[in-house]
Write a structure and sequence with these properties.
It is built from 29 helices and no strands. By secondary structure, the protein is mainly α. Helix 10 runs antiparallel to helix 11 and helix 27 packs antiparallel against helix 28.
């Protein structure tokens, strides 16, 4: 064999080995993206055992450890790699990822920029890894991630579906659903077999509770890749509360395509609950708790609580739910957990304030617009039900401020909630805003007047509502004097009382009687009051009689003064 052929064979063998290694890493990444973390970990560990310098495998093993909540393991792995290869860009980014999770944002940013600099802004995988760290970590900067991903798209011959996937994740973190969907669609154009992109489109619609688009997206993900377990799980979860038999079919497909784990066993037992086999669910869950102790999935406690609650056994439900909240990690609680606890607490008098606090926790934990609105409405309704008008008004305001589009009814309900809570200054302010927004409607004028009247003392001696009632009177007559006849009459009666009793101004009081009679000529009260106010005041009794002269006749009686006719108004 000549030398040139030998070199060609060697080169071919080396290239084949490189391709095989790349394919092996890609297989691990497919496991990772399908949330088969145990399989992904096994794959990357095998690659590192075969070649400790396989930096790609090291980076992805670290990412897998992070997903498995083993940040310490990821940190040790990246530190060990950097000790022997301090300039490996992906190891630097992996370490920066860990630092970002630990809240060391400046240190992390420095590592990211160093890695980008080492690769001269030309390595798409480096840009992707920087973005991944900032998307995953709570303190990560999604805007910075998008900036780096845009740089990746400018690299020569760019055609990377992973970049577009991460771009979608970054937009999703920024709660920009439109930008996220567009990016996932670009990922599918780059790689039509990328089931994860279609699945994530479904997740966007799911957070918006747009099931008409979410469910087909999950179905399409399973058609793209029949082994893509996350899509099966979402379909299982959706039908869990709607069609448990259909949910069970999807669950079986999920189990067939995912790594075995304690979560799967929990979901299997939860199907007993969904089928209303409460005794079986309680027995199976209790067996798990007793057998596994502190290692048991904490959700078993919650599952038992639900089973008791649905059987109207609030005492046992509260007992098991209290244990769930005592044992579960705070960051593992879902909005539904807090809402359920509020429902359970509401069954026990004296726990109303604590129940409302859990509604507040539920709202804060929910990241979706529709979810928040639904929970806030439930909280407002519960506060009203238990007679906590102040809390009801506060929730009504939160709902109003959160709404994407508000109506006159929304503003009226908010103002009336504060009026009902006796926060008259706030209701006055809100109904004044109502007048500004809806000047041709009567309600703002009416409730502004009533709010101001409530702010005055019992006799309206300060006259706080006088101008408001005058305005109400004029607006009622102008807008529709027939429809708003009662507002005209009530305004006039208020002003009659004020001008007669407080200002001692009978002519003005009489003028408002006339105003009533213009609208309602047969109004008996107005006729009676006008008659009383129009009477001439009784003559004052004479002063003490002079002492009669000698021989003069003494008066036979003393005249008694008449009562002031105004007393008839009282």
């Amino acid at each position: 064999m000549n030398k040139s052929k030998m070199c060609l064979l060697v080169a071919t063998a080396v290239l084949g080995a490189v391709n095989l290694l790349a394919q092996s890493v890609d297989q691990g990444k497919r496991y990772f993206n399908a949330q088969r973390l145990k399989s992904a970990k096994d794959q990357f560990e095998k690659l590192i055992t075969a070649n400790p310098n396989n930096i790609d495998a090291v980076y992805w093993l670290g990412q897998t450890e992070i997903e498995l909540k083993n940040t310490t393991g990821a940190k040790d792995l990246y530190q060990k790699t950097l000790a022997t290869n301090g300039s490996a860009p992906l190891a630097l980014i992996g370490m920066g990822h860990v630092e970002l999770i630990d809240g060391k944002k400046e240190d992390a940013r420095q590592r990211f920029e160093t890695a980008i600099s080492l690769t001269k802004n030309k390595d798409i995988n480096v840009f992707n890894a920087v973005a991944q760290a900032n998307i995953d970590a709570k303190d990560g900067d999604a805007t910075y991630a998008i900036e780096k991903l845009n740089l990746a798209t400018q690299v020569k011959n760019f055609n990377n579906a992973e970049t577009w996937m991460l771009m979608g994740d970054a937009y999703r973190k920024l709660i920009d659903g439109g930008g996220a969907v567009q990016s996932y669609q670009k990922a599918l154009i780059a790689d039509p077999k990328l089931a994860a992109a279609k699945y994530k489109i479904g997740k966007i619609y799911l957070t918006q509770k747009n099931y008409e688009y979410a469910l087909p997206a999950f179905e399409e993900a399973t058609q793209i890749d029949a082994a893509y377990a996350p899509a099966y799980y979402e379909l299982f979860y959706y039908y869990y509360y709607r069609d448990i038999d259909k949910a069970a079919v999807y669950f079986d497909k999920y189990l067939a395509n995912t790594d075995p784990g304690p979560t799967s066993e929990y979901d299997r037992i939860s199907i007993l609950y969904a089928r209303k086999k409460y005794a079986d669910c309680i027995a199976a869950s209790t067996q798990k708790v007793n057998a596994e102790g502190d290692n048991a999935d904490k959700r078993y406690y919650k599952l038992i609580a639900y089973s008791y609650f649905d059987q109207q056994d609030s005492l046992n439900a509260k007992n098991w739910l209290d244990q769930y909240f005592a044992k579960q990690k705070p960051d593992a609680f879902s909005p539904n957990d807090y809402e359920f606890r509020a429902q359970v607490l509401s069954k026990f008098p004296g726990n109303e304030a604590e129940a409302l606090r859990h509604y507040d926790l539920a709202v804060n934990a929910d990241t979706s617009y529709d979810g928040k609105m639904e929970l806030m409405t439930k909280a407002a309704d519960f506060a009203k039900k238990v007679g906590n008008n102040e809390a009801n008004a506060n929730w009504m305001e939160a709902i109003y401020k959160a709404k994407k589009k508000t109506s006159n009814t929304d503003l009226y309900n908010l103002g009336f909630a504060y009026y009902r809570s006796k926060n008259y200054a706030k209701s006055d302010s809100i109904f004044t805003s109502y007048i500004d927004k809806y000047p041709n409607e009567i309600f703002g004028y009416l409730w502004t007047a009533r709010s101001k009247q409530a702010l005055d003392d019992s006799t309206n001696s300060k006259g706080l509502a006088v101008d408001a009632y005058k305005t109400l009177l004029d607006k009622a007559a102008t807008i529709d004097s027939v429809k708003y006849k009662s507002q005209i009459l009530s305004s006039c009666f208020f002003l009659i009382q004020y001008y007669n009793d407080i200002k001692k101004d009978k002519p003005t009081a009489i003028s408002y009687c006339d105003r009533i009679l213009q609208t309602d000529p047969a109004n008996a009260d107005a006729i009676r009051i006008k008659d009383i106010l129009s009477r001439a005041p009784a003559a004052k009794p004479a002063g003490p009689a002079a002492k009669p002269k000698t021989g003069a006749a003494k008066p036979t009686s003393k005249a008694k003064p008449k009562k002031n006719s105004n007393s008839e108004l009282v």
